Each structure stands twice: as structure tokens, then as C-alpha cells.
Here is the input.
Amino acid sequence: MPARPKTGRDNRVCVAQIGAAHGLKGDVRLWSFTEDPLAVANYGPLESEDGVRRFEIENLRPGKGHFVARLSGVGDKNAAEALRNTKLYIPRARLPKTEDEESFYHADLIGLAVVNAKGADIGEVVAVHNFGAGDIVEIRLRDQSTMLLPFTDAAVPKVDLDAGRITVDPPEGVLPPSSRPSAAKRQKR
Here is the structure.
């Protein structure tokens, strides 16, 4: 199964999310999803998920568990409140190259085909999560169920972005029977 081509809005990366208004002058709480949280202010204009609104971060300062941001075009508390829960995106091309070939942006992995060591189709990467103990790849299996695998060399021994797939080696018994590659069995006569 080839990976979906990433064009247009699919080729964007969510780098932040706006929270509640902060004060009366239009500042907002902002959660950054970048490796260096302050770097979110360096990527240029951010746009809403639908691509209709564009924002520049004019000022960014730390708050308790979030940042407080002043965004261009947001001048009062009502305008700030109207943006609550807005996710902010940038084109993938604005992100710097990863430092080594073993590092990947989550957005580059989503949509990749998933195969086993023999090349049999297992499913597709639908998300990458990190709950604090390392990255976890969420895979939609052929039967539409999902499976989580740690994003480690043992569980995901190969990532081939050019081919649009990752190779997985899940522990025995992790794959449900419906997602295991079928094998022909010789019948006794």
C-alpha cells in the first residue's frame, strides 16, 4: 500500500494550539508542540486548520504550563475567546531538517503504509503519541482496529520515507489473527 501523497493542507504541521483569552487586551494562552517550545515564534505566519486565518506571534512569554501570546489581528478579549481551541499550522517545508536519519517529524510518519519483515501489508500509521515515556505509533490494521507499538528499533526496525512505509516487528501475539499475513497450508491427502 503506497503512502498518501502529501499536498496542500495535508503537507502542513500543527505546531500550536490557542487556549483561553489571557487578560483584556487580546492575549491568548498558547500551547506549543515544537521540540523547542519557544521556536513556535520563529516559523513565520501560523494559519488556522481551515487555512482561512493567518497569525503572526508578536509577543510570546511563559505562563504557568503554557505561553501567553499576542497574535496579530487579535485586539481584545472577545476576539481572543473566539479563537479558543484553534490549532495553528505551518507548511512542512518551513521546519528545519532533522538532525540525523533516525529522527522523524510525527507528520512525516502519519499516512505511511505498515508492513511486516516479509513485506506483507499490515495497515497504516494514523498517529504518533507521546505520553511521556517515548513515542508510540498508532496503526490502523486491515480490519480497521488499531494497535499501538513503541517507536523503537526493535518494534519498528525500518522507516523508509521515500518508499512510504515502515516495517514493524511486533512481539508475538500482539497482532490480532485477522491482521496476520495469511499463509497457504498444504492439505494432507
In short: The chain has two helices and 13 strands. The first strand starts at residue 12 and ends at 22. Residues 106-172 form a domain with the SH3 type barrels. fold (CATH 2.30.30.240). The CA atoms of residues 26 and 76 lie 4 Å apart.
